[in-house]
Amino acid sequence: QLQLQESGPGLVKPSETLSLTCTVSGGSISSSRYYWGWIRQPPGKGLEWIGNIYYSGNTYYNPSLKSRVTISIDTSRNQFSLRLSSLTAADTAVYHCARAPDTGVIMDVWGNGTTVSVSS
Amino acid sequence: EIVMTQSPATLSVSPGERATLSCRASQSVSSNLAWYQQKPGQSPRLLIYGASTRATGIPARFSGSGSGTEFTLTISSLQSEDFALYYCQQSNNWPLAFGPGTKVDIK
Lengths: 120, 107
Hints:
- The complex is a heterodimer.
- By secondary structure, chain A is mostly beta strands.
- Chain A is built from no helices and eleven strands.
- Chain A has strands at 3-7, 11-12, 18-25, 34-41, 48-54, 59-61, 69-74, 79-84, 93-101, 109-110, 114-118.
- By secondary structure, chain B is mainly beta.
- The chains are: A mainly beta, B mainly beta.
- Chain A binds chain B through residues 39, 46-49, 52, 60-63, 96, 103, 105-108, 110-113, and chain B through 1, 32, 34, 36, 38, 43-46, 49, 55, 87, 89, 91-92, 94-101.
């Protein structure tokens, strides 16, 4: 059974860069059948799509975050990662990774999420 | 960019009753619309994609309809485990976009 697990720091300082990793188990991240994505949810608020990546490295980003976001993939480790720079308190959220099948536009398997707080 | 809206923000329903949730897109997304359910402290779960296709393991009491800009999620007879948040998401164009959600709570 496919599982996704987010990992990374729970607390980061303003202006710093957040780095999160999603480890995929029970399936190969190199499959041509799937994209892999990041979605976040600020406390008490709705879902915000951050971006998706294909095994080849092709990426799609939310324009509102594009200047600060990099998503990368490491097929040797079966992981993909998120980097978000120039953090502010508004980036405080639960960050989810997810699998997106076929054309990559829906998310059918989600990780449990990891809470990130931006504070000095 | 496509903007998604949902109504109502909160829907109060008695167990066993029918719930109807609405989602609207700022421009046509054809039938490329997904619905997710999220319970407190949990990750979202895919319910419906392609506007009307149930995801694997989703009970038949969940149904989706609509095309273009207007969509509906119907829960035919609410069970206790269905009280949750529901989000729609357009899957027609990049960037992907979620609606703000509808909370279904117990009346």
